[in-house]
Amino acid sequence: MKVRNIETSAHGAVKSNNNKYLSTKKSDTSFKGVTDGLIKFWEGVDRGGLAASFTVQDMLGTNIPRTWAARNVGKEYTGKNNWVAVIENGLREFLTGPSMFVVPGAVLYGSMKYAGKANGVPVQTIKDFSNIISNNIDKIDTSSIEKFKETFYSNVLNKAFTKFDAPSKEIDVADYVKRILQMENAPKKGLINNIAGKSMPESREEILQGIVNTFVKDKKANTKGYPNFLSALITDVTDAKSAAKHEIPIDDLIGRMGKYSDDFYNMLKKSGGELSSEFLENFTNKRMGGRFATNIAMGVFTAAAMWFIPRIYTIGKTNPETDPVRQKASELKGEVKQDSTEKKDVNFSGGGISKMMADLGKQVSPDATGKLSKAAANLESDWINVARPMFYTLITCFTLIPRVIESTKRDIESSKKSGGPIQWDETANNLRRDVTTILTILFAMKGLGAVMAHKASKGSGIVLTNKILPDNANFMQKFKNFLSPDHGVQVLSKKQNTAQMSSFANMDELMRFFKDTQEKQGNLYKLLHIDAKPQKGSEPLLYNAAKKVFGDVIEKKDLSVDDLAKVLADSSDKIDKNAVDELLNVLNDTKKNPLLKFGNKINAIFETVSLAIVTAFLGFGLPKINELIIKRKYLKDNNTLQKKYQNPDVQIPDYSILNNLKPIEKQTYQYFLGKMK
Predict the structure, then answer these.
(1) CA distance 577 to 224
(2) pTM to 2 decimal places
(3) Running DSSP on this structure, what letter comes out for residue 621?
(4) Which residue among 109, 219, 303, 311 has its CA within the 20 to 30 Å range from the CA of 274?
(5) Is 125 exposed, middle or buried (0-12, 13-18, 19+ CB in 10 A)?
């Protein structure tokens, strides 16, 4: 690789062209404490993708608060904590959410372990890797796994780099390959160290981050405009829309190369060790078929688990959250039924696959034109994150429907004994609770964060989202963009902010950043003044450095890229080279860059505020609404019966969960709650 003007290592030191170093190991005081913790927390959530995002919202927004709040349901009537409701809420919430990712993760792990690691690689990428090998089959060295990886990785990376649209610097592919192999043999940080952000320079995670940093700089130096600097393209597509669709995050690409190469070489040795077009085609078809089958299995097994879970937590035939109100109503009506002591009997009920995968692989290949090929693209999972169409199907059809089925059974059972019409108390509760929860978690939280970040972008001048809507956007355009989790306005993650706002090798790259900011309706005056009024203990680093380079023009309220470009053009022979280095170094020092500090801090705060709102609503507000609705149905504000139920002919459903339990079920509750009388 040719010498770069600015180079950022994996350890965070920034090197300028006058060989001065700016240490980034000391954390800025403004990142201490709560804010720093929030940034790290949301950075971890971002790394986890849909699984982590959903789990955080599900755990903090529903599981924990709902389970905790359930103990008070009906306490005003019984005088006791409602531990039965606590158990049912806990079982329901803590089994459902995690299962949506634990189950597919287990299926994926089993498929990779027993059928081949390449089953963990998307169909499109398997096809792309195989095409790269096919086009370079004479250059692939299969004498050892190390040689195979070196030559395979080199060809894949060369493919990615030839997709850069404005080559200007030579890229040292061999250095990339060397560092990737070093990463694969390095120890992992471990979950605790990774969460804590412990520095381990020789760990797999930090070596990978160093590779990603280098890739960002190389892409900035070899592309026009301001694309996604974290993604690579290895597919032969011509139009920009298709290219964006097929781009792969560079860290994901590196992981996929490892899985594919390990599996490929293992199968090659088992077949005799000779690389041929016939072997390559057979391997490709088998693994594409296996990957498609894995995606389907991830959905099917998760759906089965979701369908079965309601049978676990609905031990009783009535709902402990509606029982206390109906019990109070029955007492007022003078119709309390006594627990039956009648003994009841307890009843207990208790070499073609390889070819099939190859045939299936032909049908799901990206080159095929059939329905299965389109299905394979739409159902592609990302690690344990099932595809969104599949996720939406699971959370609605296989989570909501079985819950409603079980609740209708209990509503029918509790109303049947009273001889009156069926009261759909639990079913109505379920629909209000679950439909609202699903919509809130899938769309509202991201929407809230996007709205706040969008407003902050306009106020600060720094673009904090992937795009900014124009001021004349109508209500429907805003509604669609802020609530769309895939294609609308999205809050930039810390990783995306870093790639966009740092790693500038020269002023040309910095000017491209200013131009992109202006095109996305950012404000250059506000951006360059972001630290002009520094807080206690900090200095106006960016403002002072920009002033030295651009002079008084940065004081223009309507500052534009053209204004900055004119200064550079008119004063190219007068601008102090050290001043340019100072400006670039301020922005490349990720610990001191005020744009990054502001962007990461404000986005983490917005994410946290959104989570707090969701938690308050879903965890405490929505259950309370359900409790009030069922109360208003049977009782007045003064806890007397509603007029309808004062009529002797209108029956109140059987309220007592214990009246409907079989002996073995009572033993289960006694185990949790102690002896019941």
Answers:
(1) 24
(2) 0.77
(3) I
(4) 109
(5) buried
